[in-house]
Design brief:
- The protein is of the alpha/beta class.
- It folds into 2 domains: 4-82 and 201-277, Rossmann fold, CATH 3.40.50; 87-198, Hypothetical Protein, Haloacid Dehalogenase-like Hydrolase, Chain: A, domain 2, CATH 3.30.1240.
- The chain is 32% helix and 27% strand.
- The protein is built from 11 helices and 14 strands.
- It has helices at residues 23-35, 47-53, 87-99, 125-132, 146-149, 163-173, 203-213, 229-233, 246-251, 263-271, 274-277; strands at residues 4-8, 38-41, 63-65, 70-73, 78-82, 105-110, 113-119, 140-143, 153-161, 179-185, 192-198, 218-223, 237-241, 254-256.
- The protein has a 6-stranded mixed sheet. It has a 5-stranded parallel sheet with strand order 2-1-12-13-14. Strands 3-4-5 form a 3-stranded antiparallel sheet, covered by helices on one side.
- Helix 1 links the parallel strand 1 (4-8) and strand 2.
- Helix 1 (23-35) runs parallel beside helix 10 (263-271).
- Residues 277-281 have low confidence and may be disordered.
């Protein structure tokens, strides 16, 4: 039987404006997963952050986090796949960020423990909001100097601020084939996020890995932003929510209802055929 892997983005796609999944969506998706639907999400968020906003969602397969840099087993936190910078790549990215006067959030394994470090006293409004939404997160690690900021096995940088401030970092690193660099405005907010990751860290690459692990025949994906384009390009079908950017809509198989109106869940309820692509879990 044909096996289909269904993959959705979170923010702006499955999540509503309150950064949660509508109750109706939870009921529909959880019910379909129980029937055997292979469903997961691919997000720029960490597993910790994603687990908070997807509370109540049943997933029986690994999830994609950090824009594809990691595949996690959500119930145990086990890392199934990861993409890393090598030493030179970490050093060069750090040099570019420093040279342009940007103070990033640095994601790294410090002494084997996942941490999110930032320079205390250099927080802007965007970083303060980021931290306020993650109170109690054990990864958070304020530091007093930039030597400590760049300690550990760094695998991801997030720079938050005004577009003009972040653009030089994006302009330099996005032209370097060793990196994948994105810049976009935060949903429902004025600040921009510039994210720097290893070249292999894409949702598309991670989805390919999951497709192989689960021996799936096809991929159907859902998204809302430009960083979902690579995921759409490797999908057999791809659907943009009504609130998606026009560039993504142009790349989509079709347009579905918005994130606020349970677009992903309603599409799945209408199109998932348990007799066609149900498998033994």
């Amino acid at each position: 039987m044909e096996k289909i892997l269904y993959v959705t983005d979170l923010d702006g796609t499955l999540l509503n404006q309150k950064d949660r999944i509508n109750k109706k969506s939870l009921e529909i998706i959880n019910g379909l997963v129980e029937e055997g639907m292979l469903f997961t999400y691919a997000t720029a968020r960490s597993l910790v952050s994603a687990s908070v906003v997807t509370e109540g969602l049943t997933t029986k397969i690994p999830v994609i986090a950090y824009n594809g840099a990691f595949i996690f087993q959500p119930d145990t936190g086990e890392i199934l796949s990861r993409e890393d910078f090598d030493r030179d790549e970490r050093a060069h990215a750090t040099e570019v960020i420093r040279a342009n006067g940007v103070w990033p959030l640095v994601y790294a394994f410090v002494d084997g423990v996942e941490r999110v470090s930032w320079l205390s006293g250099r927080e802007n409004d965007g970083i303060r909001r980021y931290l306020s939404l993650r109170k109690g997160d054990r990864r958070l690690r304020p530091v007093e100097d930039d030597e400590k900021l760049y300690q550990g096995e760094i695998f991801y940088f997030t720079c938050i601020g005004e577009k003009e401030e972040l653009w030089p970092v994006y302009d330099i690193l996005s032209k370097d084939e060793r990196y994948r660099c994105t810049i976009q405005q935060e949903l429902y907010r004025p600040e921009y996020f510039c994210e720097v990751m290893p070249a292999g860290a894409t949702k598309a690459n991670a989805i390919r890995k999951l497709k192989k692990i689960w021996n799936c025949d096809r991929v159907v994906s859902f998204g809302d932003a430009v960083n979902d384009i690579p995921m759409f390009e490797i999908s057999d079908e791809c659907y943009a929510v009504e609130n998606a950017v026009e560039e993504l809509k142009a790349a989509a198989t079709g347009i579905i209802d918005s994130n606020e109106n349970d677009g992903v869940a309603r599409w799945l309820k209408e199109h998932y055929n348990s007799s066609a692509d149900k498998i033994d879990m």
